[in-house]
């Protein structure tokens, strides 16, 4: 489930960058992606 969320956020981030979206939108998605990546790291290191 978390991997799906990470992949979804990566795709959204890439689309925003391709569309030259507003910096705040890109930052928001990037921060969400970081959050989920950290969750994956914590869950796999346990």
- Total domains, how many? 1
* SSE topology string: HH
Mean pLDDT: 85
Q: What portion of residues belong to β-strands?
A: under 5%
Low-pLDDT residue intervals, each spanning 5 or more residues: none
Rg of Cα set:
12 Å
**What would you call the shape?**
elongated
**Count of separate DSSP helical elements:** 2
Query: Portion of residues in helices?
Result: over 70%
Structural class: mainly alpha
Could you tell me how far the N terminus lies from the C terminus, measured between alpha carbons in angstroms? 17 Å
Q: How many strands appear in the DSSP assignment?
A: 0
Largest sheet: none
Keywords:
single chain, 0% strand, mainly alpha, 87% helix, 2 helices, 46 residues
Show the helix and strand layout.
Blueprint: H1 2-18, H2 23-45
Helix pairs in contact: 1-2
GO molecular function, one term: protein dimerization activity
GO biological process, one term: regulation of sporulation
Organism: Clostridium luticellarii
């Amino acid at each position: 489930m978390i991997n799906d969320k990470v992949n979804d956020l990566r795709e959204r981030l890439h689309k925003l960058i391709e569309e030259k979206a507003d910096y705040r939108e890109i930052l928001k998605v990037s921060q969400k992606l970081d959050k989920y990546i950290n969750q994956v790291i914590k869950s796999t290191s346990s």
